[in-house]
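User: I'll paste a sequence; please echo it back and then give the predicted structure.

Assistant: Echoing your sequence first, then the prediction.
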Amino acid sequence: MSRYNNYYSNNSYNENDVDAHCGCAASMHSRDEYELDVVSRNLKLLPLQKGSEKVRHRLEMMDYCIPKWSALKPGQKIFFIEEELSSRRNSAEKRIYIQFQSYIANFGTHFRNWQNKDYDAAIEELLSYIDNEKVSQFVNPPQKGNGSWEHWFNRFLPYVLYTPYSWEDVETEFTKNYNAYPQEFLQTWKFKNKNKDDALKRLYLDCIRIDELARKKKDNAKNKKQNAKSFENNHKPQMVCKRCSLAGNYY
């Protein structure tokens, strides 16, 4: 019997015990690798350019649905997030990574010493970077053109209502492409709550109000022009005859 067999024999081991032990360790290692792969794949799905709300939602779902992720320590989570961000190639996503990396470096604490409150603060900081780089998801949205804002709304309503666009997507469109819309639209959309149906009702009333103001402004300008012309016609300077002092008598 070899010295290995003597060792296991003396310690109440047999070959089946060794195989079972090694198989169990291999199985645990394989499961751990699989769980980390699930974490990595979900981090790759973080929609960095779709705004903080969607990123926050995915991270919350990971906490709820992926046991491996929820079991990680705060510093480990930050490490994995930073690693994932470093692999992004889009220019906006790169800017997010650079800012987040700088935040972590300035934090000055080793990952092993991070607390839950530190993780929460870092995520809020990350979400602020994401919102700064957020782009509109709209594809060929309705344009006002020469019509009224009410006519624009009649085309905008089905565009938003019967598509997957969320309340946040509309907010982003009004924020990023603010030159294409009245400044009141963003304020109206963000007022009170984040219910898309309620916001659309407020937006419709805003369109009517803006159109009415535009009509009044146009009418006032027209009336002002007509009054100026009338005043000019009634107060035209007349030539006065130097001999008889009669207006209009040039001889």
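Residues 100 and 143 are 37 Å apart (CA to CA). The chain has two domains: 3-133, 149-234.
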